[in-house]
Amino acid sequence: MKIIFAGTPEFAAVALRALHAAGHDIPLVLTQPDRPAGRGMQLSASAVKQFALAHSIPVAQPVSLRVDGKYPEIAKQAHALLHATPHDVMVVAAYGLILPRSVLDIPSHGCINIHASLLPRWRGAAPIHRAIEAGDAHTGVTLMQMEEGLDTGPMLLTESLSIAPDETTGSLHDRLARLGGTMIVDAMRQLQQSPLTGVPQPDTGVTYAAKISKEEAHLDFGGAAESLERKIRAFNPFPGTVAKFNGIPIKIWGAQTAAPSPVRIPGTVLAADSQAGILVVCGHGVLRLTELQKPGGKRLPASEFLKGFPLEGGRFE
Questions:
Q1: What does the angle CA 117 – CA 123 – CA 124 come to, to the nearest 5 degrees?
Q2: What is the dihedral of CA 244, 280, 271, 263, to 10 degrees?
Q3: Is the pTM of this model over 0.90?
Q4: Pair (245, 180) in one structural domain
């Protein structure tokens, strides 16, 4: 198969590597423009671009594909490139740009999206985060025939995974990325034999996975311990949850629910030592904080964190 691949982060790069390893002809890769990253905020190529360049695959990085948008000339150039590049199908994974109808109609087999949820649950930008945050027991990957709606297209293949009780977005991301890579290779093998048949998404069970904002990172101990524990796992490794202690923002990377306490003031530190750990009162229940990070410091287990940052008798804001 001749495949144009469109994607940006590591989730997409895993699928690109799988397609390349399977021997498919990939004449062009589309990915987001280089972005500032790291402490020095230097321009950094996406994971997809890095793989493509390492394997001599041509790369295009248009800022838009909409000829009726803000950058019509750039979009027209991208359209011309797509028309001039022979291909059978476009595979899309976490690309980050909207594909208008004029692009969706170019490949003879259309555009197939690798989406990290069991559609129609968690359409949108952050399905892995939101599944963990909501306490879902299962998630998975859906291969979808793309149309103009937001993740509304017919489902071609689905596979499910259980979400472990201690799952973080980082660990679940890696498992779903591997699954997506396997599934898209299988789908391309099937497509070489006959067209893939899509199943319309049901009208019930639709939820939307809104993009994660940094403003959501604040950890409000007025909430229930179970919900906060899920949020901490959902926001690990990005953007991380933050709670202030004496005005100092502390990132909290790991926690467990603990036995309730008679203390009723949320944020109160009940204990902060190597034996009991760091116990914090919540609006309902208690959280045991297991991994923390002070500004400029490293992520540390609670026992190590306390050696340089005592919390006994204090309160998180």
A1: 110
A2: 120
A3: yes
A4: no
- CA pair distance 265, 103, nearest whole angstrom: 55
How distant is the alpha carbon of residue 157 from its chain centre? Answer: 20
> What is the predicted pLDDT for the residue at 42?
82
Domain limits for position 205: 2-209
The span from the CA of 82 to the CA of 302, in Å, is 52
Number of domains forming the structure of the chain: 2
Q: Which residues pair with 140 in a beta bridge?
A: 160
Residues 232 and 171 in one domain: no
User: Which residue among 193, 209, 225 closes a domain?
Assistant: 209
Averaged over successive runs of 10 residues, the pLDDT of the chain (317 residues) comes to 97 98 98 84 92 98 95 96 98 96 97 98 98 98 96 98 97 98 98 95 97 93 97 97 96 95 92 90 96 96 95 91
Q: Please say which residue of 190, 209, 228 terminates a domain.
A: 209
Q: Are residues 151 and 87 in the same domain?
A: yes
Is the distance from CB of 154 to CB of 221 less than 8 angstroms?
no
300 in the same domain as 197: no
75 in the same domain as 56: yes
pLDDT value of residue 110: 97
Strands 138-145, 35-37: pairing kind: unpaired
- Cα separation, 196 vs 117, whole angstroms: 20
Q: Which residues contact 118 (CB under 8 A, 6 or more apart)?
A: 138, 139, 140, 142, 158, 160
- Cα 154 from Cα 188, distance rounded (Å): 17
Looking at the structure, do residues 273 and 190 belong to the same domain, yes or no? no
* No. of helices (H) and no. of strands (E), the chain: 8, 17
Could you tell me which of 161, 159, 162 has the C-alpha nearest to residue 186?
159
